[in-house]
Design goal:
heterodimer; A: 309 residues; two-stranded antiparallel ribbon; 10 helices; 6 strands; 48% helix; B: 333 residues; alpha+beta; Rossmann fold; Ribosome production factor 2 homolog (chain B); nucleus (chain B)
Chain lengths: 309, 333
């Protein structure tokens, strides 16, 4: 049976899909982008521009779609969804990275004390009325006392005492307190970051340095009126006696700092050639071991073929 | 200077929150601005580029006196007002006919700009073929070695990629892939490919023409698993020549390229963060250290000697006379 025809047909089909280029195309699936680093074929470019552009674009699209077809998929309502890996191309952001909100004073306290936040429900069950009522706001439960048809007054109470008014004043005071706290939190959050405060801290630091920068460390300097005494960082001393475990830990930490061979290799930034980067570049990110393996393999195959001859 | 707005109600608060910086950003909105004079060709080019960019595009229908390379104040104002981070500005002058300027913003300030001249424009209407659906993500194709080497073309690639398809997608439906935007260059001139860079000579003269083409994609059965892709010209097609540009300020670019910290699950997958007992050596190779359990030396087989046999010792101590019998018994066992 002659199968050469079938084989030729299969080969033709295969050729229609496979792309043959001198330099492999770079695909960035995250951005659905393909870059063709091959130089432009000048003859074909001049002969028929549109046809040349279309054929190059077709090859690019073919490579990209072939790569897409090899991605993982996930079933979805509209058919299989091809999942994309994160992009490799670096594109600048439009806005800076979001900054986490600074914690409020209560949040700081709660974290220090290990208090878990428990969210209250917006509505509360009212036994008397037999219905759910809002905790606060329109016809809220916190205004119950203010609208009560009867209020208990103690026997020794002032003549002009008005329980309804008092309850309202209390509620308003609570609201005012909360607003004040909110403002303080906002002020605290913006304190460190404002340009003025940063400048102020810098000036204070410079001033403190200059004050102790004389031969007498500022001891015999002329003092200005109202000048405050310099307050530095108070030194803390370790206790003379401490557990053996602590001592062991600190000395081990010191020794590990002295050894630090991994850090040393990173520090030598003076060298002209960044060896690691160069190796990464030459081996196309595979590393030195892979490179040597490749080289030896090539050599091995060469010698073998030579031997056969 | 715009004042900081404090939201008065929940709806405006939500609207303001939507504009706040996000870890994974929305696609860039582009504003199309017409300069003091724009010809028919430029108007049509901008209109069709906008058709490709839709729905993340805003059109300014009136003419504006805008000179992006001289004053960027109005760009910053528009960017803030419209929450947009890209501009396409059309301006046609005698000196620079049919100029399109792509402007990219970062944090309300201009990051970089690139002006191109539209030498040749063929409209979508010219091609009587099927068009892609607005809002569908295009495939991007760049062809030339200069896109990896020449600073001007690296910038152009980055700008065009950001313009057409910078949105981070989790996945795509292959049936929704409808069109390719292809950016290709004319052959590199020998002046440009020479290694000696002469700064005195006007560089833009030697920069190759940029061909921007759009094609619709159709997949044909090939008999193999992978379909054969065929392209049909869709339009618009533009031939562009590079003109003025402004590179990004290095500090600003560094800030703009900052990535968010990796999530815990990504770290577990092996992305980012150093793992224990794994280090990269001087050659950049990853080297791991394995810990095998502690060896049990009690069961170590050393040289066999008669005198070291424990059972024999006991026997000899207990009963010397029965020595021979004991050995026989052991042999039987």
């Amino acid at each position: 049976m002659d199968v050469s025809g079938i084989l030729a047909e299969q080969a033709q089909r295969h050729n229609a899909v496979v792309v043959d280029k001198d330099i492999a195309l770079e695909v960035d699936l995250g951005y659905l982008t393909v870059t063709d680093p091959n130089p432009v074929d000048e003859n074909e470019y001049k002969h028929d521009l549109e046809a040349y552009l279309q054929s190059t674009a077709r090859i690019g699209a073919q490579v990209l779609l072939s790569a897409l077809l090899q991605c993982q998929t996930r079933p979805s309502a509209d058919g299989p969804l091809t999942l994309l890996p994160p992009p490799t191309t670096l594109l600048p952001r439009a806005k800076p990275l979001p900054v986490p909100k600074p914690p409020t004073k209560w949040e700081q306290f709660a974290r220090a004390k290990g208090i878990q936040n428990r969210r209250k429900d917006l509505k509360e069950w009212d036994e008397e009325r037999g219905e759910w009522r809002a905790r606060w706001g329109h016809s809220g439960k916190n205004k119950e006392e203010e609208g009560a048809w009867l209020n208990e007054v103690k026997a020794n109470a002032d003549v002009e005492a008005d329980p309804e008014k008092e309850a309202r004043a209390e509620r308003k005071a609570r609201i005012a307190k909360n607003e004040r706290q909110q403002m303080q939190n906002a002020a605290r959050a913006s304190r460190g970051s404002s340009e003025r405060s940063v400048q102020k801290a810098e000036i204070e630091r410079t001033l403190a340095t200059t004050r102790v920068s004389t031969a007498s460390m500022g001891r015999f300097d002329f003092k200005l009126e109202g000048e405050k005494k310099l307050r530095g960082v108070k030194r803390k001393y370790d206790p003379t006696e401490r557990p053996v475990e602590d001592e062991k830990k600190s000395s081990l930490a010191l020794i590990s700092k002295l050894d630090g061979s991994t850090k040393k290799t990173r520090k030598d930034g003076d060298a002209v050639l960044n060896v690691r980067k160069a190796v990464r570049f030459v081996s196309k990110g595979k590393g030195g071991v892979a490179l040597t393996r490749e080289v030896t393999l090539k050599k091995g195959s060469k010698t073998k073929s030579e031997g056969k001859r | 200077m715009l004042r900081v707005v404090k939201p008065r109600n929940a709806r405006s608060k939500r609207a303001l929150e939507a504009r706040e910086p996000k870890e994974i950003e929305d696609p860039r909105t582009a504003i199309f601005v017409k300069g003091t004079s724009t010809g028919d060709k430029l108007n049509a080019a901008m209109k069709e580029l906008m058709a490709l960019k839709r729905p993340e595009a805003i059109s300014f229908s009136k003419k504006n006196t805008v000179r992006p390379f001289e004053d960027t104040a109005s760009l910053e104002f528009w960017a803030h007002k419209n929450d947009a981070s890209m501009f396409v500005i059309g301006q046609s002058t005698k000196k620079r006919p049919d100029g399109l300027t792509f402007v990219r913003m970062y944090n309300g300030k201009v990051l970089d700009m690139c002006e191109v001249g539209v030498d040749n424009f063929v409209s979508m209407e010219h091609f009587k073929t099927k068009k892609s659906t607005p809002g569908h993500r295009p495939l991007m194709h760049f062809a030339s070695e200069l896109f990896d080497t020449h600073p001007r073309l690296i910038q152009l690639k980055s700008l065009l990629l950001d313009f057409f398809g910078s949105e981070r997608l989790e996945g795509v439906h292959l049936s929704g892939v409808e069109h390719v935007i292809s950016v290709q260059l004319a052959p590199t001139s020998p002046e440009l490919s020479s290694t000696v860079v002469d700064t005195a000579v006007d560089e833009t003269k030697h920069l190759p023409t940029v061909h921007l083409r759009t094609y619709t994609v159709s997949a044909m059965a090939s008999g193999t698993k992978i379909p054969r892709i065929e392209l049909v010209p869709m339009g618009p097609s533009l031939d562009l020549s590079l003109r003025r540009h402004q590179q990004a300020d290095p500090e600003m670019l560094k800030a703009a390229l900052r990535r968010p910290k990796l999530k815990k699950q990504d770290v577990e997958k092996g992305l980012g963060k150093r793992k224990k007992n794994v280090e990269v050596d001087e050659m950049g190779d990853l080297r791991g250290r394995l810990h095998v359990g502690k060896q049990n030396l009690d069961k170590l087989q050393t040289r066999k000697m008669k005198g070291l046999k424990s059972a024999r010792d006991q026997d000899s101590e207990s009963d010397e006379d029965l020595e021979e019998q004991g050995t026989k018994r052991r042999k039987a066992v």
